[in-house]
Design brief:
Length: about 250
């Protein structure tokens, strides 16, 4: 088996979005609301407790977004509003958008690559394999993460495929077709690696790609699509690629 084009999802595939998410959300809540001083309704709310409730709603409502019942903005608005309600905190229309705008500005500061990312990308690049990233989100935010993670040494900016710029999101086939156009690749010989079954694995396979399910969050499969492999850690995926492509570690 040989792939001449290999693309990765970004969040929870090349770095722990869960860790960066937790730190960035707590930081944003603290700086936007906790610094107002004593005597406000926010003074008695612990940032960690607020995050835990925010994370609960993020997970609770995720399927609505992943299955295209809600837009990304609707999903974000709902998890913010419900968290504020849970603590009986005042909020107004537009607060969710302002909160997430501030979060987007700082989240890249908390991104740390998984162990082995640079070694794998370096080996693949030296082998002449086209490398890319296919990610949903805003271009400015994902570009900051790409820079903070120092992925520009291995994956050029034109190969950072972001849904906002492509005007289509994973799991739509058009997103994967657009990526191949940008990378001058072909469906045959292309592999996609991602952590979401619906957005990454199902989307890639149904677009004609091979896929590796990097199941860092313990998701359940929801379709009968067959990935080339399933792993629980980036290190497993790195070893699999080096072994399958017969590259020396």
């Amino acid at each position: 088996m040989y792939w001449n084009t290999i693309c990765f999802d970004l969040d929870n595939t090349l770095f722990s979005h869960e860790d960066a998410f937790e730190q960035a959300v707590q930081y944003t809540f603290y700086t936007m609301y906790k610094t107002n001083g004593t005597g406000t309704p926010f003074a008695e709310v612990d940032s960690k407790e607020w995050f835990r409730t925010f994370k609960y709603h993020s997970d609770l409502f995720w399927d609505y977004y992943e299955q295209n019942n809600w837009t990304h903005d609707e999903y974000r608005r709902k998890r913010f509003d419900e968290t504020m309600k849970a603590f009986f905190l005042p909020y107004q229309k537009g607060d969710a958008e302002r909160f997430h705008e501030q979060y987007e500005k700082v989240v890249a500061d908390f991104c740390v690559p998984f162990e082995g990312v640079y070694h794998l990308l370096d080996r693949l690049r030296k082998e002449g394999i086209r490398l890319g990233i296919i990610t949903n989100g805003r271009k400015a935010t994902q570009l900051k993460k790409w820079k903070k993670l120092q992925l520009d040494a291995y994956i050029p900016e034109p190969h950072l495929i972001v849904s906002e710029e492509a005007s289509v999101e994973k799991p739509e086939r058009e997103m994967f077709d657009y990526a191949l156009q940008q990378l001058s690749g072909e469906t045959a010989g292309s592999l996609f690696i991602g952590d979401s079954w619906e957005l990454d694995v199902k989307g890639a396979i149904q677009a004609g790609w091979d896929a590796v399910f990097l199941n860092t969050r313990g998701e359940q499969r929801t379709t009968n699509d067959k990935p080339a492999a399933e792993h629980m850690s980036f290190q497993e995926t790195a070893h699999y690629l080096l072994r399958t492509l017969r590259l020396k570690g």
